[in-house]
From TrEMBL:
Annotated disulfide bonds: C47-C60, C50-C68
Organism: Catagonus wagneri
Protein name: Tumor necrosis factor receptor superfamily member 5
SMART domains: TNFR (SM00208)
GO biological process: CD40 signaling pathway; defense response; intracellular calcium ion homeostasis; lymph node development; mammary gland alveolus development; multinuclear osteoclast differentiation; ossification; positive regulation of bone resorption
Length: 263
């Protein structure tokens, strides 16, 4: 059985092999199978479908091929087809916040999308306004056309003090770069506040450099004051005897010191 079938096939195959290779390819693909997307069976034959951009104005007959005609303006067909008419492009209604993102042509449909700031909602089959991210949150970038906003909490070092459907969290101001100092820390909802006045630069340094010298000065003055008072009181009591006593005491001390050295 198989052998006989093979023999029956052999003749046309050999003939085809002798003919043009292009013709061979077509014959093998089209005529015996007719399963290709680009062909259809009609009146017991395998005929060509119409290519994208054209519709079928007449099917094939036993003697003629299909008749295909181009789609009109504002019409399209995007497949190999047997359609009697082309499809009409849809309208992107600006009143419904729609805009054409692909204009479409004879072979491809027009594609509509929601305008910037809106996204397509399957619930209402309409465009909805994109959600806003409140303070402390920022919109994830890049903002995708036709997609609702994705809000992310601001990370440490970033803030957002507005409600916006497009703005990202902004980085805190770097006071160091501005040659200023941080007067107020930043939060996720507020920026760092810088201060340019030098007095606010000092607080961390002041206690270290000024305080000890102030204490020393205070102690010195106190000691001097106490000494002056004691001296004054003593002098008034003992009068000029003090001066003599002091001289005597000093001489004695010096003599003792030199005596110690000699020993
Ligand atoms: C038709 O539009 C599609 C998609 O926009 C594009 O890929 C194709 O090249 C266009 N065809 C013509 C003939 O302009
Ligand atoms: C912002 O910071 C506050 C205080 O640290 C915190 O409670 C809050 O959850 C933060 N908000 C966000 C969106 O991260
Ligand atoms: C500020 O900028 C300087 C210099 O670029 C950098 O060294 C420092 O870490 C920054 N400070 C903050 C708080 O980002
Ligand atoms: C948000 O922060 C910026 C930068 O610090 C500031 O200029 C702006 O006034 C703030 N806006 C609001 C609404 O607080």
């Amino acid at each position: 059985m198989a052998l006989r079938a093979w023999r029956r096939c052999q003749l046309p195959v050999l003939l085809a092999l002798c003919a043009l290779p292009g013709w061979l390819q077509e014959t093998l693909q089209i005529t015996p199978l007719c399963t290709s997307e680009r062909h259809y069976k009609h009146l017991g034959r395998c005929c060509n479908k119409c290519e994208p951009g054209k519709y079928m104005s007449a099917k094939c007959t036993t003697t003629s091929e299909s008749v295909c005609l181009p789609c009109g303006p504002d019409e399209y067909l995007d497949t190999w087809n047997e359609e009697e008419k082309c499809l009409l492009h849809k309208v992107c209604d600006t009143g419904k916040a729609l805009v054409a993102v692909e204009p479409g042509n004879r072979t491809a449909p027009r594609r509509c999308a929601c305008t910037a700031g809106y996204h397509w909602s399957e619930d209402c089959h309409c465009c909805r306004r994109n959600a806003e991210c409140g303070p402390g949150f920022g919109a994830q970038h890049p903002v995708q056309l036709n997609k609702d906003t994705v809000c992310k909490p601001c990370l440490a070092g970033y803030f957002s003090n507005t409600s916006s459907s497009t703005e990202k969290c902004k980085p805190w101001t770097n006071c160091t770069i501005l040659g200023e100092t941080e007067a107020h820390h930043g939060t996720n909802k507020s920026d760092v506040v810088c201060s340019s006045s030098l007095s606010s630069t000092e607080p961390p340094n002041e206690p270290q450099t000024y305080l000890p010298s102030l204490i020393i000065l205070f102690l010195f003055i106190s000691v001097a004051l106490v000494a002056a008072i004691i001296f004054g009181v003593y002098y008034r009591k003992k009068g000029k005897a003090l001066t003599a006593n002091l001289w005597h005491w000093v001489n004695e001390a010096c003599g003792r010191l030199s005596g110690n050295k000699e020993n």
